[in-house]
Predict the 3D structure of the following.
Amino acid sequence: MISAQHLTKKFGNILALDAVSFDIAPGEFVFLTGPSGSGKTTILRLIMRDLKPDAGKLVLAGPAKIHEYRRTIGTVFQDFKLLSDRSVFENVALPLEVMGVKPDDLQKSVKKALELVELTARTDLFPAQLSGGELQRVALARAIVARPKLILADEPTGNLDPKTARSIVNLLSTIHSELKTTVLMATHNADIVNHQGRRVISLEAGKVTKDSPKGKYE
Amino acid sequence: MNKPFSLAWQRIRRSPYQALAAVSIMTMTLFLGSIFFLVAAGSQAILTYFETRPQVNAFFKSDLVPTSQAVELIKANLQSTGLVAEVKYISKEEALKLYKDLNKSDPLLLEAVTANMLPASIEVSAKNPADLKPIADFLKTQANIDDVRFAEDIVSQLAIWTSSVRLIGFSLVGSHLIITFIIILLIIGIKVANRRDEITLHELLGATRGYISAPFIWEGVIYGATGAFIAWGVSYLILLYSTPFLAGFLVGIPILPAPFWFMLSLLGGELLLGAVIGAVGGFLAVRRFLKV
């Protein structure tokens, strides 16, 4: 699914990634951990094809054209990135609108996604009317609505209280097992990582320090 | 098309003052364009009218009815100069008919005139306006010709006037179009900047450049089309209002009232121009924020 070999990325004089290598197979759930500035978001942006590596090779499964490739991935952000002037339903429908899905199919898919994140009672509300946990669940619904092969989650629990954060990760875990979606989640929440007991790729100063199948946050 | 258009309309409604500014500048420029176009088209029509009119009129003595041999001799002499495009003899009866046509709105003038009072004449069109004077001089030497009149400089003066109107119009309207384009670019640019996060999100979700650009392009088209329609309406109203005055001023020159199809063509041209300016402005405003 994803194969990174000796990936290097610089921002000016700052070395964000230093010869990072890892492979992620289809259907895996992987935590990308490390302190702020360790390179987690840079890896996700490289996988989103929002950045290009300065050196090394990144092999990604999917179409060659960027916009077509991005339609095969779902993305969740720490700041939710919901459109404030659109309702919950409209926010979740965005990826399908972009893909030009027919209105009937769009309605069904959005409804299913909202059922999965248990937000069917909030469809007509706007982001300003929702709690932090609900906002992230809307973002999750938006990420899964087009049935992507890969979900990239960049610190999705960063703005949430511990209980809500755990419920969001449990939801991601449910989606992963029900939809067989590959999940790559960047986090520095040790509690969540340790509780899940999944593969962990640890980063520090742009280098992979550890890659363990059932790892702990260190 | 529906979705981008409705999004564009929604954004316009949410920022009415920016929309008002955009439509106002578009209206002003296209109104200026309409006025110059109408003046240029009117000048051209007047020029064409004068170009197709006989340019030299040679009047026989009013108490004389010229014989056909005398008329044919003058015609033949004129044709032999090689300077003449067309020669036409106007009899006293035909002169009266022309007089009646010109003064049909004034019965008093019609009552007082008979065919015998009017002179027969020869109308001559020159191949080249520069030859009007030699033709007039030639006609003065012909027997029984009492008076020769020719519009020595009217055509060349009109040609200069028409080309000046076009030049000034093009310069003024052109410079206004550039200013309008920059303002539209600025207004839509502000909106694009305000929606930078939304554009980034759309890009991350796999939107194409066309999908992201379309609402902004439609926004420009709406500004342009609205401005064009208002400008056209105002200029048409002004033209209709001033038609009686202008028709009196241009008596005998059949260019007013302006035909409706002509005004519709003007509307079509303005809509196209406004829409293109708006669309290009919208496209360029959003283009610099696109990364995909």
